Amino acid sequence: MEIVQYTPDLQTPVTQFYNRLTADVPHCYPVKAEEFATAIRGVTAGEADKKEGGVDSEAAFVAMVNGAVEAFIHVGIEREERVGGVIRFLGYERGARRAGQAVLEKAEAYLKTYDISRISAFWQDYRYRFYHFEHAYLSDALDQVQALLGFNGYKRSEGEVFLDWENYSVTPIPSSLPVTLSTDWKDGRGQRPNCTVRAHQNGEEVGICESICGGEFSSYPDAQDWLHTVWLGVEDEFQGQGLGRYLLQYALQEMQKIGYRHAAISTAWDNHRAFLFYSNCGYRTVDWTYEFVRDLSETPTTNGNP
Fold first, then answer.
1. Which position among 113, 118, 139, 170 has the lowest Cβ density within 10 Å, counted as fewest Cβ atoms?
2. What CATH number does the domain containing 250 carry?
3. Quick check: 78 and 85 in contact, CB under 8 A?
4. Backbone angles phi, psi at 114, to 5 degrees
5. Residue 24 has pLDDT above 60, yes or no
6. Are residues 67 and 199 in the same domain?
7. 60-114 tens-digit pLDDT
8. CA 248/CA 251 separation, integer angstroms
9. pLDDT at position 303
10. Same domain, yes or no: 9 and 154
């Protein structure tokens, strides 16, 4: 096994490795080598691509076995306080634990040269744009990566649960509140526009539902049929009267009219109220995702070394 620093000549095999690894991750679609190159441009250009969520001082390492990629890691230093390292992506083939461990150790040694106090893995602010939907951390579908991080002293810090509703069908039930709704459409990266529905009462905005096209994250054709609701909010004094449900159902109906077929939504792992609401609206859980953080002042402890 050989651990090498990522260079542009590895773009194609690393992209193929990424696509194999994420094939079972919800809302991860095959990515083209050119798109992957954009996400990792900060490694080769020496300057972070802020529009693509880049971090500072980026580096990437690849574990090669007989000319094949078995593990890959992409890291950097967070831009704001510069006291933390960031693992933007880490993956290894199932069964290739030694390769995963080797690239993790190589990346940690690199990050520690910057005198950091912690390392965050799969922080949603620095995710690849085409990895999952917005707000995602490390997917349960990459459980071997979660296991490796946990074994090395990383602990779950934040989390987001994702729910889907394939081939959804809704009939909006109006709220008991006397409100008027307005709908705004805005073109983005996707083939279909993004949608914002607002509720007004006496000229004041009292609720909002923002949904975007799956094409914001992926150019893959199947992603264009998905909408992802990224924000649903109702002012405190107007909650509990069916307005949130009405906003969401109305948005889904309007977006279905222009061709959307499937809906996704997510919430923080500990937002039990929202989770209860979404799971009773028609959505079903498809993924749990987590950020993992290691405090470098702590010594990792393991339960044996199988």
1. 113
2. 3.40.630.30
3. yes
4. -95, 10
5. yes
6. no
7. 999 999 999 999 999 999 877 667 999 999 999 999 999 999 999 999 999 999 9
8. 5
9. 53
10. yes
pLDDT number for residue 81: 66
Domain match, 7 and 55 both: yes
Give the separation between CA 168 and CA 161, rounded to whole angstroms.
19
Model pLDDT for residues 141-190, shown as the tens digit of each residue: 999 999 999 999 999 999 999 999 999 999 999 998 899 999 999 999 99
Q: Assess whether 127 and 194 both reside in one domain.
A: no
Helix axes 143-151 and 97-112, enclosed angle (nearest 10)? 50
Residue 51 has pLDDT above 80, yes or no: no
Angle value at C-alpha 90, between 286 and 98, nearest 5 degrees: 115
* 279 occurs within a structural domain: no
Domains of the chain: total? 2
Same domain, 98 and 195: no
Query: Which pLDDT belongs to residue 218?
Result: 95
Per the listing, tokens 């007989």 go with 66
pLDDT category at 3 given cuts 50, 70, 90 is very high
Nearest alpha carbon to residue 289 among 139, 71, 158, 112:
139
DSSP state of 125: G
- Beta pairing partners, 265: 163, 229
Phi, psi of 39 (to 5 degrees): -65, -30
DSSP 185-247: EE--SSSS-EEEEEEEETTEEEEEEEEEEGGGT--SGGGGGEEEEEEEEE-GGGTTSSHHHHH
Kindly state the tokens that stand for 225: 């049929």
CA separation (Å) from 22 to 27, 70, 110, 285? 9, 14, 25, 18
The mean per-residue pLDDT over the stretch 126-145 comes to: 96
Task: Answer whether 114's CB lies under 8 Å from 85's CB.
Answer: yes
Q: What is the pLDDT of residues 229-262, one digit of tens each?
A: 999 999 988 888 899 999 999 999 999 999 999 9
Q: In the structure encoding, which two tokens stand for residue 281, read together?
A: 């609206």
Range of the domain at 209: 180-260
Q: What are 31's two structure tokens?
A: 């990515």
What pLDDT is stored for residue 298 in this prediction?
A: 74
